[in-house]
Structure of ABC transporter domain-containing protein:
Amino acid sequence: MMPPNEQESSFPIIPGESRNETIPVQETWFSSPSHVIPCLDDDGPSHQSCQSSVLRQSLRPIILKFEELTYTIKIQSGKGSYWFGSQEPKQNRLILNGVSGIVKPGELLAMLGPSGSGKTTLVTALAGRLQGKLSGTVSYNGAPFTSSVKRRTGFVTQDDVLYPHLTVMETLTYTALLRLPKELTRKEKIQQAESVISDLGLTRCCNSVIGGGLIRGISGGERKRVSIGQEMLVNPSLLLLDEPTSGLDSTTAARIVATLRSLARGGRTVVTTIHQPSSRLYRMFDKVLVLSDGSPIYSGDSGRVMEYFGSIGFQPGSSFVNPADFVLDLANGITSDTKQYEQVEINGKLDRLDEQNSVKQSLISAYKKNLYPPLKEEFSRAFPQDQTVNRSRSKTRLANRWPTSWWMQFSVLLKRGLKERSHESFSGLRIFMVMSVSLLSGLLWWHSRVAHIQDQVGLLFFFSIFWGFLPLFNAIFTFPQERPMLIKERSSGIYRLSSYYIARTVGDLPMELILPTIFVTITYWMGGLKSSLTTFIMTLMIVLYSVLVSQGVGLALGAILMDAKKAATLSSVLMLVFLLAGGYYIQHIPGFIAWLKYISFSHYCYKLLVGVQYTWDEVYECGPGLHCSVMDYEGIKNLRLGNMMWDVLALTLMLLLYRFLAYVALRNL
Ligand SMILES: Nc1ncnc2c1ncn2[C@@H]1O[C@H](COP(=O)(O)OP(=O)(O)OP(=O)(O)O)[C@@H](O)[C@H]1O
C-alpha cells in the first residue's frame, strides 16, 4: 500500500489539467487561451499575473528529436610522473551510447539513471553546449541548433550561477532587461520580472540577496527557482534543466517539478534530469528516459514503465511502490532476484558484479529490440513544426540579432556590475590600505628636498612600482571569477562580448582611479615634491595612465590563464622583473638583458615621473658649496630622458595591446 503522502499531492496544479494530457502539436499556440504562462504562487495558481504576462505573444513550440547520440571522451590514466604528467596513452571512454528520443511541446521528459550514467552530458548536448565530438543527430523542429533556437532555449545548470550580492528582484530585473527583446519597454520588462517572481512563489524573498559562499542569502530551493525564473523570463520554447531538485526537500522538489509540468502544459518542451524522484514526482512526468552506463534501457511514456519491464521479465519486488526506485535499481543491474543475492552473499562481490552487468546488457538489448524500432519509425514521421522551419527561415535573420542594442547591453551590464561589486569597490579594507601606505610614505619622505635627490627619485620609483603592482593584482581575479557567469550568459546569446568587456572594465575604473588619486595627492605634498600645480597634475596623470596599463596586464593574464592562482604567480615574477629592470636598483644592466626595461610599463612610468619633476637647468647640492645639474645625477642620467612622447606612446601601445589580448582570450572561452 502506498504511504499516505504518496497518494495525495500538495503542490499546486492548474485547474482542469490531467497528467497524461498532451497537447496536439497542430494547435496554434499563440492564440490558445490555455497556453498562457503558468502561474504558481505560494498559495496556488495566480491567474492575475498571467493576464499581465507580456510573454504570451512570443511562444513558438519546438519539437526536440535526438537520435543515436554517442559521445566519447579521451581520458588520461592517473599514473605518471608528478612533473611530466602521465606517460600512458589516453584512453577512450564512452559516455553516451546510442541515446534517442522525441519530446514534443506540452511534454515533460525526465531523464533518470544512476550517478555517472550520462544524464548531465545528455542534457548539455541537447542544450547545444557540449564541447567535443558528439555523433548522432539532434534536431529542433527538424533543423539543427541555430542561434535562433539558442535564444528560445532555456538551460538551467545543476549549479546555480548567480551574483551573490544582488537581490532576487535585481537578479531577475537585470536578466529581463538584457534578455527580453527591445520591442518591449523597460516598464514591460520589469513587469515581466515581477510576474515571474510571483509565478515562482518568490514574492516573500524578492528583496533578499541571493547569497552563496560565506554570504547568507535565500535558500537553495529559492535559488534554484531564481535560476529557473531567469530562463522562464524569455518564455523559452525549449527548457532544459539539470537536476533542478538536487539537495531540496521533497515539498520544494515537488513544487519545482509541478512548475516544470505547468510550463510544459503552457506549450513548452521541457526536459529535466532527476536523480531520485519520489513517486509523487514521478507521476508528474509524461515521458522518461532511463540511462544505464550511458546506454538507454527505457524511453517512452512514464506510465508504461512497469508494464514494459514486466513484459521483458523484470517484475518489481513486493516492496516496490515507486517506479523510479524500480527503474533505478534496474539501471544499476539490480533486480528483485539480485536483492536476494545481497542477503545470501553466496559467491561474494565479484559474482554480484557479473550478475549486474549481465542484467544491464539484457536490458540494453531489450531496448534495442523492443523500444528503438517504434522510436525510429516516429523519427521518420514529419511534424507540422518541421515543415514550418523553411517558412520561418526568412525570419531567422531577425531572430539572429541580439535581443537588445549594444548600448542597452552596456548600460545594464555596467549598472549590474557596479551594484554587485559595490561592497568590494568601496571596501573599507582597500581604502584603509591605500590611506595608510600613503600616510606612511608621506611621513617617510616628509618634505624631502632636491638636495636629497636620491630620496626624491626613490619616491618617484615607489609611485611607479606601487601603482604598477596593485591594479595588476586586483585585475587578475576579474575574469577567472566571472568565468561561470560569462559562459552561462554568452552561451544563451544574451549579449555581445564587447558590451560586457567594456562595461566590466569601465565599471572598475572609478575605484581604480580614485584610490591612486588620493594616494598621489597625499604623498606628493607630504613628500615635498616640486610645489607646482602643473607638475602635480602631470604626475597624477602619469600614475593614472600607468594604472590603466597595469590593469590591462592583469586582465590579460587572468583572461589567458583563467586561473587566479597561476595568474598571481606569473604576475609576481613579471613584477619582480619589472622592478629590477626598471632602472632604479641597477644602474648598469648588462646589454644583453637591458631590453627587459623596454617591456616594463613601470619603467616608462618612472621615466615620465622623473621627466616632469626635474627641468634640464635644475641643479642640486652635490657637495658642500657644490652644485651639480640634476640631469647629471647617475640615477637620472642612466634613464636617458629624451622626448617624453615616446614613453607616452609606448604606454599607449601597451594599454591597447594588453586589453586587446584580454578580449581575444575571452572570445576563445
Ligand atoms: N570531461 C570529462 N572528463 C572525465 N570524465 C567525464 C567528463 N565528462 C563526463 N565524464 C564522465 O562521464 C560520466 C557521465 O557523467 P555525467 O555528469 O553526465 O553523469 P550524471 O548521470 O549526470 O551523474 P550525476 O547524477 O552524478 O550528476 C561520469 O562517469 C563522468 O565521470
About this structure: The longest strand covers residues 91-103.
